[in-house]
Amino acid sequence: MISRLEDRLVVMSAICTHKSCVLRKQDKKVLRCPCHKSFFSEYGTPTEGPAKIALPRYAVTLAEDGTIQVDTTQSFGEQDWDNPKAFIPLTKT
């Protein structure tokens, strides 16, 4: 999933960290797991249910031609979300 979170563009997994079910969007700020009723904030942190681990984010870069490139072989846990490889900084225009 690609999300704009404040001044960052991030790419996070759409797979629940509890039992690997595909998440669904509950509303603009909530993701829900239909299998075991875990809920995640728009940032990917678990807020309710059996999931205890945040959704991993993937390495993301902006190519010279303006395309977004995602490397799913590099993932970042919640403690590493400030790693510069885990987001594309957005500037206000």
How would you explain this protein's 3D organization?
It is elongated and about 40 Å long. It is 0% helix and 41% strand. It has no helices and 9 strands. The protein has a single domain (2-89), classed as Rieske Iron-sulfur Protein, CATH 2.102.10.10. It has 93 residues and is mostly beta strands.
Estimate the mean pLDDT confidence: 95
Poorly predicted regions are none
Supply the CATH class.
Answer: Mainly Beta
* Annotation field: number of helices: 0
Strand order of the largest sheet: 3-4-5-6
> How far apart lie the N and C ends?
24 Å
Strand proportion, as a percent range, falls in 35-45%
State the secondary-structure class.
mainly beta
User: Helix coverage percent of residues?
Assistant: under 10%
In short:
This protein has 93 residues and is mainly β. It contains no helices and nine strands.
Any descriptors?
three-stranded antiparallel sheet; Rieske Iron-sulfur Protein; elongated; mainly beta
